[in-house]
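User: My collaborator sent over this chain with a note saying "see what the structure looks like." That's all I know about it. Can you take a look?
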Amino acid sequence: MKIGELIFVGFGLGEDGLTLKGLEAVRNADEVYVETYTNYTPEHILRRLEEVSGRSFKKVSREDLENLEGKVVLDRATESKIVLLTPGDPFTATTHIALRLEAEKRGIKTRVIGSSSIVTSAAGACGLQIYKFGETATVCFPDGGMVSTKPYETTFYNLTRGLHTLLLLDYRAHENKAMTINEGLRLLREVEDVKQMGIFTEDRLVVGLARLGYDNAKVKGGRMDELIYEDFGEPPHCIIVPGALHFLEAEALVKLASVRRSLVGNIPRFRGFIEVDILDKYILGVKNVFREMKTLEEVREMPIEKLNLALEWARNYYNDSIAFRRKGDLVSSLIAIAYCEGILEGLRLLKLVDFKWEGEY
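Assistant: Without extra context I'll predict from the sequence alone. Here is the result:
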């Protein structure tokens, strides 16, 4: 009985991103499948790969690999050597881990041949240090008129730590519609108009990257109100929002991304800049107060029902603060915990409860 194998091969970025090892796997496979729904891939790239490898590819859709659990590929891989080609790297920004696990459950041998990924290439293209990047997010096309706030909140959370943010841009394969840097910035500005937390203000330094891996790649940084009108040409595109800069990173942005020197020396912090460690200290301090607080039994000027209601409000603000903190909305978290502290301190001044803040003796 012939033993099957499923080989995940990334064809990297641009026209010549397929490695020699990947090319060998494609040439030696019984069948080659390719998915392009996870990233915009011009048809000439696929034709180039077919020409170089001497093979013809079978396209598979998101429906084939996700909704139908990869049946079309896995059934063939049971007794044949199958290659699945993916843009970029198979298990970085593009993940097919569920398909690989299902193959392993079926007893199908799997291998991975990686390639270049936008996650690492974007940082290098403009000279930023990869270990100073925080969480990555995707700016998505509006769904039913609703604009996702996830990339805004992710950028907020990263900036509080001085970290850079890579924002990937949506691709709707069924429409062959790839979001541009200009469209992405406009959507982020819409969220800023609602949130007003000072993240994507007109003077925010952003870097647009287009067609990395292609001969006509473009990297350009500048103020948001400038880049939103910049012509970056054809997709694929992505955006980087720099955080705190090392002096070498600042120099790299000037040299590699054409950023004006005055911008890298004066990156605006958003109006709601909050030190996360301090916020967490406030939340922990209130938690300790709730645990140790005593209700005084002396003569009160407030009925017990009203006292309990006031304490309930304080606990609600405390719970709200934790919820906002988990979502990355640090401004709202700080406001909520401050309201909570104010209620508790007022009750203490009225001698209705007794407790000590951290550090009090």
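A starting point for your reply to your collaborator: The mean pLDDT is 89.
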